Amino acid sequence: DDMENELQCGICSEIMHNCVSVISCLHTFCSFCLSMWLDQGSNTCPHCRNNIDYVVRNFKIRNVVDAYLTEHPDKKRDKETIEELEKNNQLTEDKLRKIEEKKRMKRKNDSDDEDNDSDENSSDSDDGGQHRQNRFGAQIFGVPMVQCRQCTTAGLDGFICGPNQSHKMCQCCIRYFPDRTLTPLQPGQQAPPPTQCLYCKSSFCNLYWGCTGPNGDTSFRLLKDMQLVAVPQNCILNNQTETDLFIKLLNTYIKLTPDQLWKKIINQLIDGSQAGQINRTNSTASSQQGSSDNENSDKDDDDDDQQQGAGVNNV
């Protein structure tokens, strides 16, 4: 029934015994099943593959399991099977209790630190109303804690930071520059160049006024102009095992370097062929409705693909 399905362990497919939950995804398993999974060297959740921070006992689900087994005693595992599985269980009740106590102490200490910081900030802000907070740091007695060179000197387009100007930090040179995304343009003033990546949301100043960091003027550029020297670690679902499988597939069967595969994907996105292929793959059933429907569908796909390609060119 539905209740039985909900109470099944995702590893052994039996009703859970001494269930434990993975933090932070909260997926729940038998303690000895998860112990065997971790003994294999994996530090990811068996269900979603997210990294495991720590493991805790889930008393609420344990109570539900006990109530269910009381009404359905035939679903219980025999005592000998449980004893055999518990022999190699590293997630013992004593060990889990120590983990939980350690986490409670850490939360308590963190809470005490936050209270102390709050008290210090309250005393610092007692300045007769002259203390003001902006997006990147505070102004104390009218002097901004975050400054860039346009806070004192106007740029080539005549822009100079106001008293409450927001700032961004360049992730290459680690210096501040104006965040003008919400700053209204003056008459005759051109819009500033893009400074934030649409994908990773990191900010860079090289297109704004030139970057002095290690990557210089190449720190922020179009996707099609980037080079992929190697496959990034944990690039697939933040899981190194699956990333290693992808690298093996790339080297053994696809036989392309990471940069060659990158360029191929970007070029297909730009001309729309990759997006069109995905759309046609997902509409196999509808493709059997007739040649006229296919022609209309392909035409719509081509229109959408051109828009997607244009978007990649303007990243």
Automatic annotation (TrEMBL):
GO annotations of cellular component type: nucleus
Region feature (Disordered): 96-133, 277-315
Entry superkingdom: Eukaryota
SUPFAM superfamilies the record matches: RING/U-box
Molecular function via GO: ubiquitin-protein transferase activity; zinc ion binding
Transmembrane segments: none
GO biological process: protein ubiquitination; ubiquitin-dependent protein catabolic process
Record key words, sorted: Cell cycle, Metal-binding, Nucleus, Transferase, Ubl conjugation pathway, Zinc, Zinc-finger
Biased composition, class Polar residues, residue ranges: 277-294
Acidic residues: compositionally biased ranges: 111-127
Cell compartments where the protein resides: Nucleus, PML body
RING-type domain sequence ranges: 9-49
Protein name per the record: Putative E3 ubiquitin-protein ligase CHFR
Organism of this sequence: Streblomastix strix
